[in-house]
Amino acid sequence: MPSSSLCQDETCPPYSLMDDYSEGAHPQILEALLRTNASQQVAYGGDDYCHDARQLIRDRIDCTEDEADIFFVPSGTSANLISIASCLRPYEAVITLESGHIACKEAGAIEATGHKLILVPAVDGKMTTINLRKAFQQNQFFPHMAKPRLLYLSNASETGTVYTKRELTNLSALCKELNLLLLMDGARIGTALCSKKNDMTLRDIYDLTDIFWIGGTKSGALLGEAIVVKKALAEGFIFHLKQHGALLAKGRILGVQFMELFREDLFFALAGHANNMALKISARFEQLGYKLAADTETNQVFVILPQRLVQRLQDRFRFYTWEQLDDGQVVVRIVTSWATDELQVDRFNAWVEQWTVANA
């Protein structure tokens, strides 16, 4: 992994543990973009690189071109918005967790297309079959209520937890029983698949969902997500890309990046590094007696800290204040990335230990 110089000077800018997209792109991706830059290609995703990237992704899934289409879009919001808008009628609704990205991080993008969001409480950051069935049953007063038609999940979840194969199998079976489509947001699907808690493959996810997408933005690419759509839902999908401004003339830029991510094991190597850095941070917190607010299963660490320690750390590191607790303590979110410098992780852990020992 790329490493930065370890800055000990108080004047150095704080090191970011805020998110997994503070850095630009992995050097191999930048090199691939430069290497292919002068090649003249067909526009709007019809280029050789998008074609090769689609085939590499299908090979990883173990599916054929007859089974699934793959579309590249520039962002996660566009991936969610287009996936949902493409397969729902105006009166149909989406069931999502209260903490779901489409519910609280996308500025009402789904509602702006005319689709109601039915909000459900999370359990360990995830949807359960009990909560899904209850939400479905509570929204059956037709035609006065929007009709539930799609279940939205994210894997990893907003609190970094991952779905097991059994959990996703049970949710998928219930969706079929209730005639619901299943969409999986894969902004952090790389870290989910590389989690020590994971027991699924890309093929399992393909089999158990109707649409899912593979995040590149948070996995070492400059930008871009790859939406995997089963053939039954793929007809006309490209028109939705165009109408929503996501069909790039220079689609090659997305194709080159995904080709490089999946040509060998770069996508999974980068996700594994992010997870390992998060585990190193969370393990030290637990060794020092701090309580985790959520299990660290991927690259997000949620921990409860004293306000004074948070203020001390914020002089040297950037991270997100997730929740202010009634007892004066704070839940913070620390996110590691494909590029997180292990020396900076060691420095972070050392500051935590130093403050803890001094204030014991």
Automatic annotation (TrEMBL):
Residues of the Aromatic amino acid beta-eliminating lyase/threonine aldolase domain: 28-305
Cofactor(s) this protein cannot do without: pyridoxal 5'-phosphate
InterPro entries: ArAA_b-elim_lyase/Thr_aldolase, PyrdxlP-dep_Trfase, PyrdxlP-dep_Trfase_major, PyrdxlP-dep_Trfase_small
Keywords: Lyase, Pyridoxal phosphate
Any one Gene Ontology BP term: amino acid metabolic process
GO terms of molecular function: lyase activity
Keyword Endoplasmic reticulum: no
Entry similarity comment: Belongs to the threonine aldolase family.
Keyword Lyase: yes
Name of the protein this chain belongs to: Aromatic amino acid beta-eliminating lyase/threonine aldolase
SUPFAM superfamilies: PLP-dependent transferases (SSF53383)
